[in-house]
Amino acid sequence: MIGRRLVREWDPSTDTTRIWHETLDHDRKVRIVRPDISFTDGKKVHYMFDGNGKLTNTW
Q1: I want to staple 23 with a disulfide (CB 3.0 to 4.6 A). Which of 32, 38, 42, 54 is the partner?
Q2: Domain of life of the organism in this record (predicted)?
């Protein structure tokens, strides 16, 4: 993995936002996604994907 980035999505019609973290591999593909804890009841939940985008693990 080469790095992590914070992503913020804003819906102007409802003025709501979603925030999550993405971890990128060496091909710059998103391999791990972790939604912000405000959306997961205060728990850090990770979703891992293979190089083809298939969900392979959660923790």
Answers
A1: 32
A2: Bacteria
